[in-house]
Write a structure and sequence with these properties.
The complex is a heterodimer.
Chain A: H1 2-31, H2 38-54, H3 67-97, H4 104-125, E1 130-131, E2 140-143, E3 146-149, H5 150-172, H6 174-184, H7 186-191, H8 196-222, E4 224-225, H9 229-244, H10 249-269, H11 275-289
Antiparallel strand pairs in A: 1-4, 2-3
Helix pairs in contact in A: 1-5, 1-8, 1-9, 1-10, 2-3, 2-4, 2-8, 2-9, 3-4, 3-8, 5-6, 5-8, 6-8, 9-10, 9-11, 10-11
Chain B: E1 2-11, E2 14-24, E3 29-33, H1 40-48, E4 55-60, E5 63-64, H2 70-76, E6 78-81, H3 93-100, H4 109-119, H5 121-125, H6 136-148, E7 154-158, H7 166-181, E8 185-189, H8 193-199, E9 202-207, E10 210-216, H9 217-222, H10 224-230
Parallel strand pairs in B: 3-8, 3-9, 6-7, 7-8
Antiparallel strand pairs in B: 1-2, 1-4, 4-5, 9-10
The chains are: A mainly alpha, B alpha/beta.
Chain lengths: 305, 250
């Protein structure tokens, strides 16, 4: 019974990894770019959610906001932060100093953004963990002896809806086709009038939305946020993405859930200290058997969505 | 309709296109000939908007397009069928055609795509299959069909016959004549000189980035000195690799 409870918990934890892993895989699949700011965006969502519900709007514009509004504001701020990252890492530096095949400049500059943003938050709010006063922790259902918290169920549902919506959008909408065209062959896409400068921000808006929602879900589920909260989630989401296959959305979903499961089972059987060993060990074993991940294609960087 | 004046394209220290001037009138077929490295592809890339020219002007319908984006050019009616086809192999045939309508939002897109299927029944049969299952010739038809869905008034083709079987080369040039009778102007860059001059009314010969000669198609075809010296005889034999189908983009 305890094992089954752990299994349920792992799905809930996994859904946070899934959302962040999908954000990673989207940028890799379309732009061939490992966006290092994703863990920071996730952290910003959590910390801004906390700041808005603790202090309210800056300059005394409002008192502390109720938590749902604070989290919505946090998601919007995360999207804005993601667009700022796009403006400076991807657009400015890449178009000014690189060409369409240049990958190192966005990568390194996004790593810079990771450090700058994280330390700005540390300077602003200190390095301590903060309690996020979310919905009552009592909202728990007892289903046949298994305890399921309502916020967990809601976050699972939100994750499922986002991933399904994203897949539908990429598969069937005009913008989705444009994104896939850019992913496969930027030159040919450009010839048909797909404007990279207009469509790349779409990827960053989606990245901000996914990270924002993941950070909000994390704050609700764990009731605690900190400037360091992105580091652990970020590395595990990358592990999940690699296990599932770079650039594959369903791969990120599968990989995120697998990492969540490995983590909970490791905690259950061996204790929390061995989690990293098991997660990254599983990653190595997966890559030995499936070099491009469970659902990945063998072409790196192109046309995978 | 298209007026190019004194166009320069520079890559680093290399001047790929030097002060090229050319015109294409509405409904006209114009051939651009020249050996490898003569600057033909660079010229087309500048016309399509992939490279910024370092000098000169591009005007389309009297509007200055020199610094306009590719999207603006497609919207105003000029579209490129690039060398090597560049179809999207990760997409289905149908999605490739929909990509041609990327900038359109009117209600006639579905009808225009159906018209492409009527023109190319091979594509209709495979509309839901991946574009990478198509043969080289079918891929070229798809690339042209995709460009047509954007409703161009000027279609620019870069080496469309390269790598096609002789049968498909025949069909390709028949198709170009058909398109022209639908009042679409064509700027055709080809190494297959004799076929290109058959379908064109005028031609330009590029050498080392500059216009060497400009004349009517008849005059150019009868210019034996020219065909021998610069165009390698004008028959199919000048094309390396024309016998085997080129591999898809990826």
């Amino acid at each position: 019974m305890l094992l089954l409870q752990q299994f349920v918990n792992s799905i809930m934890l996994g859904s946070v990894y899934v959302t962040v892993a999908v954000a990673f895989t989207l940028t890799i699949g379309i732009l061939n770019f490992l966006n290092f700011t994703i863990p920071t965006l996730f952290m910003i969502a959590g910390m801004m959610g906390w700041a808005l519900s603790y202090y309210g709007l800056p300059l005394g514009l409002s008192g502390p906001l109720p938590w749902p509004i604070a989290l919505m504001g946090a998601v919007v701020l995360t999207i804005i932060a993601s667009l700022i990252v796009e403006r400076f890492t991807f657009r400015y530096l890449k178009t000014k100093y690189g060409d369409s095949t240049e990958h190192a400049i966005p990568l390194v500059s996004s790593l810079g953004f990771l450090l700058v943003l994280e330390n700005l938050v540390r300077i602003g709010y200190g390095t301590d963990s903060r309690r996020f006063e979310g919905p009552d922790a009592d909202l728990t259902m007892n289903i046949g002896g298994i305890f399921v918290r309502v916020p967990q169920l809601v976050s699972l549902a939100v994750t499922v809806v986002i991933v399904l919506g994203l897949t539908m959008m990429i598969k069937h909408s005009r913008i989705g086709r444009g994104l896939r065209a850019i992913a496969e062959n930027p030159d040919a896409a450009n010839i048909l009038g797909v404007d990279t400068r207009r469509i790349v921000p779409v990827v960053f808006i989606l990245t901000g939305l996914l990270c924002g929602l993941a950070g909000a879900l994390f704050a609700i589920n764990y009731g605690e946020v900190s400037p360091a909260m992105g580091e652990d989630i970020g590395t595990k989401a990358i592990a999940g993405m690699v296990i599932g296959g770079l650039g594959s959305i369903w791969g990120a979903v599968l990989g995120g859930l697998i990492v969540g499961l490995i983590e909970m089972m490791t905690v259950h059987f061996f204790g929390a200290d061995t989690v990293q060993v098991m997660v990254w060990g599983a990653l190595l074993l997966t890559l030995l058997a499936y070099p491009s991940g469970l659902l990945g294609h063998n072409t790196i960087g192109k046309g995978k969505l | 309709m298209l007026e190019v004046s004194h166009l320069d394209v520079t890559y680093g220290r290399t001047r790929a296109v030097k002060s090229v001037s050319l015109t294409v009138a509405a409904g006209e077929v114009v051939a651009v000939l020249g050996a490898n490295g003569a600057g033909k592809t660079s010229l087309l890339r500048a016309l399509q908007g992939a490279v910024r020219p370092s000098g000169g002007k591009i005007r389309f319908d009297g509007k200055d397009m020199t610094n306009q984006s590719s999207a603006a050019r497609v919207r105003s009616g000029m579209v490129l069928v690039p060398e090597g086809r560049q179809i999207f192999v990760s997409m289905s045939v149908h999605e490739n055609l929909q990509m041609g309508a990327y900038l359109r939002s009117d209600a006639d897109i579905a009808r225009d795509i159906e018209a492409i299927y009527e023109r190319f029944p091979n594509l209709a049969e495979r509309r839901h299959m991946s574009a990478k299952t198509l043969s080289g010739g079918e891929q070229q038809m798809l690339a042209i069909g995709r460009a047509l869905v954007s409703r161009p008034r000027l279609i620019m083709l870069d080496e469309p016959s390269l790598g096609l079987s002789p049968l498909f080369v025949e069909r390709l040039f028949d198709l170009l004549a058909e398109l022209n009778s639908d009042d679409i102007a064509i700027l055709l860059v080809e190494q297959n000189t004799s076929m290109a001059l058959d379908v064109a009314s005028r031609g330009y010969v590029l050498e080392l980035g500059s216009v060497l000669l400009e004349d009517t198609a008849e005059a150019l075809s009868s210019n034996t000195a020219l065909t021998e010296a610069y165009l390698g005889g004008g028959q199919n034999t000048d094309q390396e690799g024309s016998e085997h189908e080129r591999a898809p983009a990826r």
